[in-house]
Amino acid sequence: MFLWILLLLLILVVFGFGFTMQTLWWVAAVLLVVWIVGFTRRGRGGGRRRYGRR
């Protein structure tokens, strides 16, 4: 009986870890896209402002 409970807990841990890793991949991809969009927008706007003041 103890081995069945241990096996069930192991399966739940592995399943939860796999789900978490898949979710973290999606979160990382979304954050990368947001970072790239923010970097390109800030790069264009900041460049014009900096040279416009001089």
From TrEMBL:
UniProt entry keywords in alphabetical sequence: Membrane, Transmembrane, Transmembrane helix
TM stretches of this protein: 26-44
Domain of life from the UniProt record: Bacteria
Protein name per Swiss-Prot or TrEMBL: Hydrophobic protein
Organism the protein comes from: Streptomyces flaveus
